[in-house]
Amino acid sequence: KTKLISAGLYKKFNEKQVLSSKFWLTLIVAFASFLIFVFSKNPPAIWQLAGGVALTFFFPNLDLSSKIKNRQQDIRLALPYVIDLLTLSTEAGLDFLGSIGKVVGKCPPSALIDEMSELLKDIQLGKTRSEALKDFANRINIPETTSLVALLVSSDKMGASIGTVLRAQSSTMRIERLMKAEKLGAQASQKILFPLVIFIMPAVMLIIFGPMIISLVGG
To answer: If we measure between CA atoms, which residue out of 9, 12, 13, 7 comes closest to residue 141?
Structure first.
């Protein structure tokens, strides 16, 4: 259930539907593999059939994890921009609830806007701001929103300015994103080293030393 919520799919499927679909689909594939193995003149190897059954069972989990990762990455990229809009709205005189409503109404649809819309609905339906924010962080389940919600909840209890907290958090997120981009760039240079040595260096060496070797052999 938690994974379906994080992937933004819980409105379409619940955990019982997913588990039952996995069970019946795996059972059908296993039965079909058994029939192929028994009645086919040239059946595939048993490990191939078993691998197909195992893939059928585990593929939904892998696909769900991939969807969660992609959605969290989209939210992570959009978060500083949305926080800036919230900051401008609160500093312009709107309260926190009004700022969320303004951002949800003006921004194009995205995973983060969908979650903020759910946050707004939770507050309008009677949840306290702290409860709605914590549910918001639990649904997204990334460190950035967890730390943001913790700061907002504590500032709400202490009576601090939410606009100041949002602006500071936005700056922190941008710095973290820049550091992460630099880290990924450094990792990319390391990853390209292996194909460089394997594929490019032999060609360079051949171009440099090839004529010398040919002249020596010919001489």
So the answer is: 7
